[in-house]
Predict the structure of Glutamate-1-semialdehyde 2,1-aminomutase.
Amino acid sequence: MNNKKSAQIYQEATKYMPGGVNSPVRAFKSVGLNPLFIERAQGSKIYDVDGNEYIDYICSWGPLMLGHSPSQIVDGIEEIIKKGTSYGVPTKIEVDMAKIIVEAYPAIDQVRMVNSGTEATMSALRVARAFTKRNKILKFEGCYHGHSDALLVKSGSGTITYGVPTSPGVPDDVVKDTLVCRYNDLDAVRDIFEEYGNEIAAVIVETVSGNMGVVPGKQEFLQLLRDITKEYNSVLIFDEVITGFRLHYNSSVGYFGINPDMVCFGKIIGAGLPVGAYGGKKEIMDMVSPVGPVYQAGTLSGNPLAMYMGKKNLEILRDNPQIYTELERKATKLAEGLKSNIEKLGLDYTVNRAGSLVCLFFAKGPINNYEDVTKCDISKFNKYFKEVLKRGILLAPTQFEAMFLSNAHTDEDIEYTIKAIYEALKISHNL
Ligand SMILES: *Cc1c(COP(=O)(O)O)cnc(C)c1O
């Protein structure tokens, strides 16, 4: 594998950008490699500047349900650009987009578009705190909710990979109201509510955590969160930045049959453009300016290009439910293939899957929480990552992320991947 051009660009990149990247996990530092610089991508394939081709399981970390640059979505975008790239004055497509999201998510009445998942969760918390007139929030170890100060506590993938439980630069005062419990631990939730229940403004949770590998929330855990927040008049926020429109067209409401009070979206609803959204019941969203007193704004929020891409993406997902059955089938095939690989090789590892999110954990299962995840053999994973990459497959360069399937991944892609992973496991474990 020739990486000459990537290496050259990387050298220049480190001069002008911290670590040469605009988001830490892209640096490949965790796996001891230099990053790849990408030239283009199409469908399930991604190509670096040296001309290497990979089957892509990063898929922009989740947004690309239909793969890279699907013509059903990108065709027509030039027309939109010619009409203007941003107005700062309302457009009809923003209304269409909001309507699609609200109709797909029966738990909410209204939605506000923002530009990232981080903005969505940060804003949702502000609204929930104002609505309840309380300050404390409860989050779970290993769940990532973007990088706003109050939520950057024990927060998964990037922070686990780089061993930063809480980032410097976040004042203690800002996180003193952030309570943290173990994921999937019902007793811990009951205990914390017994102690602080009447001060808790909101509980924020990933229904399936995609930021410590793939760790699905147990049905009874999510149900407890629903019941206990109702009992204490706290706001239940589902952070569906990864799971939204991925697990199911009706997101976690469809997948788990549980309705939160508020929801955060990102990733998929922008189909690869910078988008986020938060929504809730009308009485909660009435807190948001200009109706209510909670200030939250955005120069590029509801941007016409992002709305065009996002709306088309959601319409395709809405009108073609077979996409979800197909994705489920392909993800099952991949997960079963990985299981059979580790069995054949006698490795006591674990495969978790939820919908089209798959993760091979380098540890004995079951993997139900952050503590379980930290038992993974990272040095083995890093060797494995390199072997997989050599075989033309791009995984997230960390143990603590999912393999993201898109509907552009073909059966041949998956069969090739299973075989290549078998060889990579064998070599990296000296078997
Ligand atoms: C990616 C992610 C975020 C942050 O979204 P950005 O668009 O990167 O700011 C928040 N929550 C979850 C669950 C995520 O996976």
User: Anything to note?
Assistant: Residues 238 and 287 are 18 Å apart (CA to CA).
